[in-house]
Amino acid sequence: MNQKYPSALLENAVNEFAKLPGIGRKTALRLILHLLRQDDATVDSFSQALVSLKHQVKYCKVCHNICDNEVCSTCLDKSRDSSTVCVVENIKEVMAIENTMQYKGLYHVLGGIISPIDGIGPTDLEIESLVKRVSNGGITEIILALSTTMEGDTTNFYIYKKLSPYNVKVSMIARGISIGDEIEYADEVTLGRSILNRTLFNESYRI
């Protein structure tokens, strides 16, 4: 049975909030009613933060992580090991790995993983830019830190084959992350140990 709303404005707001992942119509209504109870300055600040994020956020031209400038602070950090690059799906994985405080190299954000059923192919991801980074020299190891799903493994294998002509070690995080698990949901201890105990890709898959 469809919910009846006393205001078309309220219904429109609920419809928009309900488009967010994990937000149902009941949760959307609760959030909207909460915002209506706030003062104008609070709501204006909330809406302006979203508008500013959408229109002003940048993507690092080196690693494609979200940042405020042309190059992110991680890529500019001279104390980090620039010879090691950890390949992840999205910014959530960067944040998760950084929270472990176990990794001191750089990152490369693909922006997704290969998923034919969703219409996502290799050309839709930042794979060629990764190959270019390796071909430019200076990188000795690529760590594949994608989720241990079929799509993640497919992407791992594709990247491994693309990097095979280059003199670079390709490793992957240890399977302390359970098969089928998403990286962002792994606890920090398990994720940190997986980074430290990474294995060579070709040994893991017996290629």
Could you walk me through the main structural features you see in this protein, from its secondary elements to its overall organization?
With 207 residues, the chain is of the alpha/beta class. It has nine helices and seven strands, in the order H-H-H-E-E-H-E-H-E-H-E-H-E-H-E-H. Strands 4-3-5-6-7 form a five-stranded mixed beta sheet. A two-stranded antiparallel sheet has the order 1-2. Strand 5 (141-144), helix 7 and strand 6 form a beta-alpha-beta unit. Helix 1 (8-17) packs across helix 2 (25-36) and helix 5 crosses helix 8. The protein is elongated. The termini are far apart. The relative contact order is 0.10.
